[in-house]
Amino acid sequence: RASRTPSGRPRPKGGLRQTAFFTSAALFSLFLPRLGDLIGRRRVLAGMLALMAVGCVMAALAGSVPVLFAGRVIQGVSGPTVPLCLIMLRNEVHEPKKYGTLLGVITAVNGGVAGVDSLAGGYLADHHGFSSIFWAMAAVAALATVLVATLTPESVATESAGAESRMDWPGVALLVVSVGAALIALNEAGKLADANWPLVAALFVVTAIAFALFWRTEDRSSHPLVATHHLSQRSTWALLLTTVLTMTGVFAVMNGLIPAFAQDAQAGFGMTAEQSAWWTLIPYALAGLAMGPLAGRLAATHGYGRILRLGLIGAAATLALMLLTLRADSRPLLLAASILIGITYAGVGNIVLNGLGIVLSPKENPGFLPGLNAGAFNLGAGLSFALVYAAQTAAEPADKTSTTGYGAGIITGAALIAAAFVTSFLIPKPVEAEATP
Predict the structure, then answer these.
(1) How far apart, in whole angstroms, are the C-alpha atoms of residue 45 and residue 148?
(2) Where are the alpha helices (DSSP H) in 190-257?
(3) By C-alpha distance, which of 299, 317, 315, 316 is closest to 307?
(4) For the chain, how many structural domains are there in total?
(5) What span, in angstroms and rounded, lies between the C-alpha atoms of 231 and 361?
(6) Do the beta carbons of residue 288 and residue 343 sit within 8 Å?
(7) pLDDT tens for residues 185-211?
(8) Measured between alpha carbons, how far is 219 from 429 in angstroms, rounded to an integer?
(9) In this structure, are residues 359 and 235 in contact, taking their beta carbons and an 8 Å threshold?
(10) Cβ(255)–Cβ(281) below 8 Å
(11) What is the CATH number for 76?
């Protein structure tokens, strides 16, 4: 179902604010991969999935909004599932091309399911009630818990046997407060005209203060969550900046503007929500699923940076094609644009950015960069809805048959992807993860 922009246009509710699940997932992603380095990745992953199942059961049985909210927060523990899987894979597979291919498979399956599960969820809700979705999720999570606990090897970081290898919980608390405040601020800013802007400003102040304290704590700690010299390296900040810019440019356009345009009866195609999914989100996700394994192998063969930049160029060009879609009453063109952004972003950009988080992470702390990169994905998603919709609202004319607002949002997204292309040149080459000629 859709909410409305200030001028009455349809806009998905999920685009206006982060849900409890996504906020929780972002915060748990910051430190659970590092905890896995220390006490065992299989143990942490199995525990995450078990808690996911508990959260699903709680949500299925919820008789009130607070209980449902709590269930969704608990489900968010599963947030760093993919980064942990990729770290475990890296520990077992050392040949670059094979690892790149399998990295692409895991990341693409995670993204590809997102196009199909929306239909499955709709079917379950329509035929068996809303709680059936959570029961199905609980069953899958329980099965995954058993499979991880019984079939995967245990692994820890090499340095975890040292005397100083213990979790930096003060650093965790400060980083969670900093990122959590930023996410809540972005959620609020995404409400645009209805936002509480003094609250947004206050939350960003909290973000800055908490991060400054986090930096000071990490500088003085004998067992930091993230050593400050790692934070200052290009392999860290350039990757995180590129991830944020890429997500900010793509996420709200593909998950908000384009489906809303497809459903817009005055300026767009007037589709139902289900029809819109078939023409946009599902082709997008399935194209990414098909492209992901190939992109991972190409990255290991021809260079992660080179393949990432090809994906970013393709994504920006596809957004330009979407501008033509706004003016042409052509469903095939809408479908083609959705498939192309699925190939270039979901199948290439997203795959390579996830992979870089693994292969650029230092050997003595392999969990820190994948965790921060997962947080960067979530920050970019939240910022995307705030900026892209702000551009749409600012440019939207009184004429509801005009596509000017949609065009402004897409142009904003393309500009951000262009900025990501520039910053991608600052990401160092992961020499050990690329096959030698």
Answers:
(1) 7
(2) 197-220, 228-231, 234-252
(3) 299
(4) 1
(5) 11
(6) yes
(7) 888 887 777 889 999 999 999 999 999
(8) 27
(9) no
(10) yes
(11) 1.20.1250.20
Report the distance separating Cα 386 and Cα 108, nearest Å. 26
SS3 (DSSP) at 18: coil
Helix (H, G, I), strand (E, B) or coil at 49: helix
Return phi, psi of residue 2, to 5°. -120, 145
By residue range, what is the domain housing residue 155?
2-433
Give the pLDDT confidence of 353-403 residue by residue, as tens digits: 999 999 999 888 899 899 999 888 888 887 888 889 889 988 888 888 888
Between helices 368-395 and 350-359, what is the axis angle to 10°? 150
Alpha-carbon separation of residue 334 from 117, 279, 324, 391 (angstroms): 21, 7, 9, 21
Q: Tokens 């997008």 belong to which residue?
A: 284
CA distance 33 to 40: 10
230-234-236 Cα angle (round to 5): 50
Cα 337 from Cα 128, distance rounded (Å): 34
Q: Which tokens is 46 given? A: 């199995």
